[in-house]
Amino acid sequence: MIPTFGPILLQFEGPGAELAFLAGRLAFGLVVAFMGLNHLLNVDDMAGYGQAKGLPAARFMVVASGVTLVLGGLGVATGVFPTLAAGAVAAFLVVATPTFHDFWAVPEDRKQAEMTDFLKNVTMLGAALVFLALSNTAWPYALGIGL
């Protein structure tokens, strides 16, 4: 492989590749945005959970993370500021996953649910990192607004 020092130029080739990438962006981005909306619609419950996990300024952090997830998810789905959008979602998941889904430190009756949520978040982190890695390429069917 030849090393490059500039933006990666990726071609979406093959039958349906552009539509598959769009479908992946929409699935990921809209689920992330929905998660953020859930934060904003359930601030009290989410803040209580955050306080139980030792989150400082839990109410503020729930609102801030909700806004981050809504904007990040919509950014990935639409291709608007894709580097910031995917990076913000990845940063949220890096912090939230071990903090809130610490299956190794919960009572036995909560272990399976926390492990499931932990693994879901790790999977979503992987997708966010892929979108971040591809954020310097031209995304098909994207609004193309960015830095």
Automatic annotation (TrEMBL):
Membrane topology: Multi-pass membrane protein
Pfam families: DoxX (PF07681)
Keywords of the record: Membrane, Transmembrane, Transmembrane helix
Subcellular location per the Swiss-Prot or TrEMBL entry: Membrane
This protein's GO CC annotations: membrane
Zinc-finger listed as a keyword: no
UniProt-recorded name of the protein: Uncharacterized membrane protein YphA, DoxX/SURF4 family
Provenance organism: Halogeometricum limi
